[in-house]
Every structure is written in structure tokens, then in C-alpha cells.
Amino acid sequence: MAENRASVYGEGVPCWVDAQLPDVAAGRRFYGELFGWTFDEEVPDSAAAVWARKDGSPVAALTHKTDGRMPTVWTVYFATPDARALCGRIRAAGGQIVTAPVPVDGLGAAALATDPEGAVFGLWQAGDHPGFGRRHEAGTFGWVELYARDTQAANAFYGSLFHDALFGADAEPDFGRAPVSDVFPAEMPPHFLVHFLVADCEQAVGAVQRLGGRVQAPAFDASYGRVAVVTDNQGASFALLQR
């Protein structure tokens, strides 16, 4: 379907996700079996990202985690035409820049930031790589939920950065906000949770468990679909979403 082969993403639209893993080969096996992803050939530099593809189109990346102190995690990237300018607006709104914009082999420029509560998110300024080649279908990105302590403060922060993407007349949001305690223990830090679409949530949960992952939150009904929160076999959390 044409709408799944998006080539341009407006500022504030989730446009890419990657997972930082200690063992990329194990990640390829896990996600290849779970979502039917295929992978580009690994490059000699073990720190480089390996693209995952669905029906030939890029849908995510798996990256080798070189520092064992860093979390094993999925990160969402929001599109921007000017990452440096957006970093300035993030600082002015009370957020912090973890990694300033860095060019990525002509593909674009990436940065990492946190909101005022500490939730980490990425920025992507497209070059040759605009982002997802497919989304909103089984085995691809479908949603990202911010679990925050103060959802009104989160609305104000992200609304000031990405107003058109969140509240514009033509917006079809891929991004929601909810209190941490809705799903997780109250002491869980604020964070973004990447959701991948599946045809059957319960069956997908069973597949995660067979592949060595575990369940953090059994399937429940949310306003945007049926959701289960799981981790892969290396500890990276993500959600399964059935619509």
C-alpha cells in the first residue's frame, strides 16, 4: 500500500527505531523469527547498525552496544529538518541533549535527547535515508507511547516542539502519553515504549516466550489497540500492538 511506503516525514513524526544490543546476531535470530524480518549483510565494523527489512523495505536497525554500562533498549527517532535547531528548542524547553547531532554516512544526522523527566528519544535529520520504508502493518512500527510521571507537563513539552505532528488538523498521531503507573510500577523511570504491529497479540506473546523473551505486562486493552509489553532475549523492552 502506498501509504506504508512513506518517503517524507514531517517534524515530530516518529520516523525510525533502533535497538542497542550486546549480541546483534542473536537479535537477528529473535526478530527475524518474531516479525519475519530479513537483514542486510553485517559490515566489518561491529558497531555499525544492521538494517532490518520487511518485504525488502527498511523498518528498523539493530546496533551493537559497545559499552556494557549502557542500557539494552529500543529508541524512537523523531523526524526534523534541522536537528541542531531542534536541539536548541529542546534545551530552551527544559530538556537535555545527550548526544549532539552526528552525521551518519550520508544517510542523515542523528541526535539523542531527554525530556525534562528524563525520557530518552532520538532525532533524525534525513539525508539519503528518510526513515521507515514500511510502517503501520504487521511486523513494522505502529505506535510509540511515552510513559510519563506528569502527562500534562509532557503535553506542554512535546507540544511546544512538535505541535503540528501532535495537534495539527491533518495529524494522524503515532505517539501517545500515559502515566507510568498505568502499566508499570510507580518507581519505573519515564520512558518511550516502541510498539510493533502484530495480527494476534496473544499469539505473538507466545512466540516471544518461545524465543527466550519474557512478558512484562500481559495483553491489555488500550485506546489505540490491544497491547502486551515484552522484552527480547537480551532485555530490550518493546510492545506488541494488535489493532
UniProtKB/TrEMBL annotation:
Gene3D superfamilies named among the record's database cross-references:
2,3-Dihydroxybiphenyl 1,2-Dioxygenase, domain 1
Q: Which keywords does the record carry?
A: Hydrolase
Single GO MF annotation: hydrolase activity
Domain VOC span(s) in chain numbering: 13-126
Note whether Cell cycle occurs among the keywords. Answer: no
Name the Pfam families for this protein. Answer: Glyoxalase
The keyword Nucleus is assigned to this record: no
How is this protein named in the record?
Answer: Hydrolase
Q: Can you name the source organism?
A: Streptomyces shenzhenensis
